[in-house]
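Question (not urgent): is this output format expected?
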Amino acid sequence: MAMIRIRGGRPLHGEYTVPGSKNGALPILAASILCSQGPVTLLGCPHLSDVENMLALLRHLGCQTRWEGDALTIDAQNARVSQMPEELAKVMRSSIFMLGPLLGRFGSAVATYPGGCDIGLRPIDLHLKGLRTLGARITEQAGYIFSDGAALKGGMIHLDYPSVGATENLMMAAALTPGTTRLTNAAREPEIVQLQDFLRAMGADISGAGTETITINGVERLSGCSFPIAADRIVAGTFLVAAAITGGEIALRGAPVEQLAAVEAKLREAGCTLEKDGALWRLRAPAKLGAIESIETQPYPGFPTDMQALFLALCTRGQGASVITENIFENRFRVVPQLARMGARIRVSDRTAIVHGPGRLTGAGVTAPDLRGGAALVVAALAAEGETRIGRVDLIDRGYEHIEQDLSALGADAVRIEG
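Got this back:
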């Protein structure tokens, strides 16, 4: 099993180009199955294990896929309904995205309960409730979800919670469903807007993404297109934190600055200087990081839950106590015991963590508990004295492509050791 070895204490300096968004690409890959006329080509698609798993699902459903550099072409003209392989669906949360487009295009679907990172319950009840509102008949048996959408028609759907996944799934299901569908209390994340733009590029009639109400007028068919994947706001935030915790200076190219307003505010509170410089977004760390009085994760445009673990690591270097409250998932402090192995002083009570800084981080053998927790361990290792070895790199690879190489290019001493 591979691991990442980091020898800490080296400030990061240099320029980093932000790659395409994983969370943006996955629903778009699922939506490509809606296209019955011509292929779609995604530009700047990230080469990640989650993307490859989604492509394996698409190929199982009869799609053809082809990489040319970072351009990915999917031809779904000969796609068909087929039971998703359990071994693939179980390892990634985004497999549930197939339910909506399969129902929308073919009128039936068979799925399994999705896997992914163990960061909380993340129930799919909102997905199924919304699809039933559109007329789908859904039965659940032995871990499988059987869906019949022969009678699908547009309808009014109010989401009890602004779930990103449910919003995306229902947008895809409604794109080819006769009539008008209106989603209220919809998620407003940038990835929702990007999915709307992709569906429009294929010919869908959809509006309102980025607001609480999304309206979809079903069309008969969708056609091929070429579409750019937007920059990954969480990867951008990760590298900002990496530069901040090491006392470095970084310039991000292609960063979605406006999408990171909540993250920027907390970095400024810690004493970092951030400024736009043409196409670059620069961060300069202070001599000593300050404590952050309070961070609370919220749906967009609030502070993103995917950045919470990274700020746990950052706050270990702050001058004083920082308080972080997790409001989205109930199991997202799983990285704390691993950070404690490195010397972090963090006390967790229910959904709140109090980080006492400035602590002295020292290298240790640690294991990534999940994707973002793994990234937090990488960031902590950059600031630690001595050598840190991080296991379960496969979890980190779900959202970062060769993170150790990118960090090394910025001055870190980081290598991957194949086991």
